[in-house]
Amino acid sequence: MDKRGAAPANGPASESELSKAARERLAALRAEYDPKDEDRDTGEDRDTYVDVEGGIRLQKALAAAGVASRRASEEMIAAGRVSVDGQIVRRFGARVDPRTSEIRVDDMRVVTAPDKLYFALNKPRGVVSTMWDPEGRPTLADYTGQTQERIFHVGRLDTETEGLILLTNDGELANRLTHPRYKVVKTYIAKVPGPVPHRVVRQVQKGVELEDGPVEVDSFRVVDNEPPKALVEIRLHEGRKHIVRRLMEAVGHPVSDLARTQVGPVGLHTLKLGTMRALTSREVSELYEAAGL
């Protein structure tokens, strides 16, 4: 498993997939580039980015992060699609520090730090959302295996709730994903007594007052309304304890089963219960975007 995340689902772009014009453009740029003189520009307006001393080449950092092949990364650089620390960089030889440089492609953050880990876990019911439990109950650590770096869970699910939990060692991202200020939406599917009438749907959509204050959902809809049960989808960005269960109890439809299916742009998809996978580089970039980073 690649701890930094696999390549995007459709795979990195290869030079053979580029248009004829793009290949000719890339060949011309390479002809101009002299690795002994990494300050040579590419024929475009010269950028003023200052190389990181001892850093690695920008195209190598992009390739290592799974964005694209090194050659396709060069094409993106030449096209002005790549920025470093807020500045467009068009030089193939530009040097960056993968640990500290903020690299973006098409204005989406690319995480290049080699020590940053990002995982998705489909937590089963009965598992405590901690890495250790004094009572000896099953924990997330029983499903995460061994990693070289310590990882921690992003938020919690109560013991009887199953579904998606993200794990990482990226503290800044984890904080933003859990803090309601950044409004990263979490999606849940709940089984409740059915049918759920339209008045309840309107009531939840309007907002429900709980003992510790009102709760406003981002969206609420009935997925299946076949008696004697119903499935409802709740999307909200706050994380008060048992918030979904308390919300549905307040409107007369207590939850019997609950699962979280999505955090921001990352979903469970085909991830089997009790298994974990590395996030792709695209998913990590989308999480950064959702968190405003």
Describe the structure.
- With about 290 residues, the protein is of the alpha+beta class.
- It folds into 2 domains: about 15-110, Roll (Structural Genomics Hypothetical 15.5 Kd Protein In mrcA-pckA Intergenic Region, Chain A); about 120-290, 2-Layer Sandwich (Pseudouridine synthase).
- Helix content is about 25%, strand content about 25%.
- The protein is built from 8 helices and 17 strands.
- The strands form 4 sheets. Strands 7, 8, 9, 10, 13, 14, 15, 16 and 17 form a 9-stranded mixed sheet that branches. Strands 3-2-5-6 form a 4-stranded antiparallel sheet.
- α2 packs across α3 (about 70-80).
- The chain starts with 19 loop residues before the first helix and ends with a helix.
Global morphology: elongated
**Mean pLDDT across every amino acid position:** 86
Oligomer: single chain
Count of domain modules: 2
Fill in the keyword field for this structure.
293 residues, alpha+beta, Structural Genomics Hypothetical 15.5 Kd Protein In mrcA-pckA Intergenic Region, Chain A, Pseudouridine synthase, 2 domains, four-stranded antiparallel β-sheet
Short description:
The protein is of the alpha+beta class and about 290 residues long. The chain has eight helices and 17 strands.
